[in-house]
Amino acid sequence: MWKLKEIGKIVKDKRYTIYSPLDGQPCADHDRATGEGVQPQEYTIIKMEEVAPFPAKLGVLEGRKVFLAAATLRPETMRGQTNAWVLPEGKVPEKPTCLVDLTGYDLIGLPLKSPLALNQIIYALPMLTILTDKGTGIVTSVPSDAPDDLMALRDLKLKPAFRSKCDVRDEWVMPFDIIPIIDIPEFGDKAA
After folding, report:
1. Is the entire prediction scored with pTM above 0.85?
2. How far apart are CA 152 and CA 163, in angstroms?
3. Domain span at 149
4. What is the pLDDT of residues 124-147, one digit of tens each?
5. Could you give the CA distance from residue 180 to residue 162 in angstroms, rounded to a whole number?
6. Do residues 11 and 63 share a domain?
7. Percentage helix, strand, coil for the chain under 3-state DSSP, each rounded to 5
8. Residue 117 burial class via C-beta count within 10 angstroms: exposed 0-12, middle 13-18, buried 19 and up
9. Integer angstrom CA distances of residue 191 from 29, 40, 73, 99, 184
């Protein structure tokens, strides 16, 4: 944060607030028709570097360093990543500058290097329950500790028709198993 302040990106002290995309401005607690008492939620953004070769849709970015930015509420679990999730028909946000118009389908199968992950390469895979209006619309997957991730990965492994429908290759899914990272008394190291 100090670095941002030094280069002039932060001009005042921080004050977390709720932002209304509908109105395009911050809104105080009593300004909201619903959600009074709701506080901002803190996400950690994980920069995952895209690995060449780029798919055709991302060809215009060839030769550049390209990152997917995944949002997580649990950065301590990043060592257990097996993949990243995208909503197949979800639009990738166009702000602040749109270099390429993409949907989640365009990202499926994208090989990624993610910091702290034990796997050298993980892949972007389809998950149908992602909300594109929360975080970045890209979600890291830690099936050892997140039940939704466990079930979505299991569905991809057990349902070849679903893999086929989303053009998911077996090698993007089948070799990836749960990576135990947190041991919870009474639940073990695969709590999900």
Report:
1. no
2. 11
3. 44-172
4. 999 999 888 777 888 889 898 889
5. 26
6. no
7. 25, 20, 55
8. buried
9. 36, 27, 17, 40, 7
